[in-house]
């Protein structure tokens, strides 16, 4: 298999991505690669459990319940509103998230798509999709609807599953080749109060949907115009995932969404963001700031 120019993707994978607008990298990350991010997620779950206990909403923090089940079990007898107080997705600055965002296997794949000067976009989401919370389902949308005015093209989403993502627990669904579309006119989802950007049925066109169940550690890369959604979690455990975003360093860093960081640079390796920079929200690592 030929590896294309630089980065880890083969020419076949690259051709597939360019044509279809997405690419699945099955089990890209090992259990060891995921350890730090799972630890960060577990830390947050412990904090939530302690708060629920202090509020008298639960009597047991379920400290020994396995990672895929603990958050689901904590909220089993509580309302969706109680869960949504913590947000439908999280963007904390915990070291394990930085470890994942800087993982060389992810950056090697992204480098194949955009070259070796890689900016990590401030929009990253940790998604604890728990059962019984309707807002866990994400309507059809294009990611670019969240930054329509940003001069950033392309922004690559790297969606990573921490557990096996299945049709039952609400895996990702995608409409291939829709990355060639313009940004469609969207509305705000109002049924579950999430405020997600959403497209109506008649905007989806005739392209058949591809359903993407993947094993834990797999990555799904997609272009920010590619239509995608996910279904509700009908299982008894949490569909844990993370969606990360990367773009070339000469694009709009979108500071209105937070501080991104220089994840990789062949030109200025000494300026690549460290964990300490990231924890301090150090914002500027763009190419134009490095000259
Ligand atoms: O994880 C999901 O269910 C949806 C992810 C998504 O919409 C995204 O990564 O943009």
UniProtKB/TrEMBL annotation:
What's the domain of life for this entry? Bacteria
One short Pfam name that applies is PhyH
Q: Where is the signal peptide?
A: none
Q: Which UniProt keywords apply?
A: Dioxygenase, Oxidoreductase
- GO molecular function terms attached to this record: dioxygenase activity
As recorded in UniProt, coiled-coil segments are none
The family database entries (InterPro entries) matched by this protein are listed as: Phytyl_CoA_dOase-like
The protein here is known as Phytanoyl-CoA dioxygenase family protein
Q: Tell me what organism the protein belongs to.
A: Paenibacillus baimaensis
């Amino acid at each position: 298999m030929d590896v294309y120019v630089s980065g880890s993707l083969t020419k076949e994978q690259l051709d597939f991505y360019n044509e279809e607008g997405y690419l699945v990298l099955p089990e890209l990350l090992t259990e060891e690669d995921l350890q730090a991010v799972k630890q960060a997620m577990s830390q947050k779950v412990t904090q939530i459990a302690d708060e629920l206990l202090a509020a008298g909403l639960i009597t047991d923090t379920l400290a020994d319940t396995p990672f895929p089940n603990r958050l689901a079990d904590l909220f089993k007898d509580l309302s969706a509103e109680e869960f949504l107080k913590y947000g439908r997705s999280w963007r904390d600055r915990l070291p394990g998230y930085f470890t994942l965002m800087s993982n060389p296997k992810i950056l090697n794949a992204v480098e194949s798509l955009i070259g070796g000067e890689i900016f990590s976009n401030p929009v990253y989401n940790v998604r604890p999709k728990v059962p019984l919370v309707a807002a866990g389902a994400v309507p059809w949308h294009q990611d670019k609807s969240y930054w329509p005015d940003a001069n950033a093209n392309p922004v690559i989403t790297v969606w990573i599953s921490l557990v096996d993502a299945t049709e039952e627990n609400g895996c990702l669904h995608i409409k291939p080749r829709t990355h060639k579309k313009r940004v469609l006119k969207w509305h705000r989802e109002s049924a579950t109060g999430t405020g997600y950007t959403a497209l109506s049925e008649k905007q989806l066109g005739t392209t058949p949907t591809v359903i993407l169940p993947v094993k834990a550690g797999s990555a799904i890369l997609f272009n920010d115009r590619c239509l995608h959604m996910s279904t509700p979690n009908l299982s008894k455990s949490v569909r844990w995932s993370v969606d990360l975003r990367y773009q070339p360093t000469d694009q709009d860093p979108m500071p209105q969404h937070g501080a991104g960081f220089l994840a990789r640079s062949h030109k200025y390796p000494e300026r690549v963001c460290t964990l300490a920079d990231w924890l301090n929200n150090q914002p500027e690592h763009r190419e134009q700031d490095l000259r």
